[in-house]
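YdbS-like PH domain-containing protein
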Amino acid sequence: MLANEKTVKSEKPSVLGQKEFWRGIGLIILSIVIFAVLSIFLPNYDISFSLLFSYIGIKNIPLIGALPLISTLLEIIGIIYIVVSELEVYFIEYTITNSRVIIQNGIIAKKTKIVLPSKISDVSVDINILDRMLKLGKVIIRPEEQGRPNITLRGIRDPYSFQGSVLKLIGDVTYKNPNGS
């Protein structure tokens, strides 16, 4: 932070606003459905780890060998998606100061994106049905220069307040929060 800089608003995004989290949940639900369908319609199906172990030539491991292969692998992939999205969100921080917007992210190497108020042309909020149910939203910062990509801040808990803080920073004093706060 600069010498005379003060933090106006700082926010860590919610994991519920991340696509990877919902992909992981979807894979876990899919694995449960596959397991249930296979258990009902094929009660003695033999696509398990023991079949894989015998194909590879590994001695059967009793506890793991009885698990159904497809649904277990889908659950493991789903859990990996959830853990990765949780780690990514843990290391993201959106900060609005009295002179700039700072976006920091990265697990091993920190990346810092700084947006100066003079470079921002518009700030909008995008809330879909799922976001509305989870009380989340996306804040989209549009740069002044044509051809530069928009900056999307996902998983913001109070997106209108965050948008208002950015608009006050860029000098748009006509902003009124639709939620009344």
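thats it. The chain has two domains: 7-13+95-170, 20-87. Helices lie at 19-41, 49-56, 62-65, 69-90, 129-134, 159-170. bye
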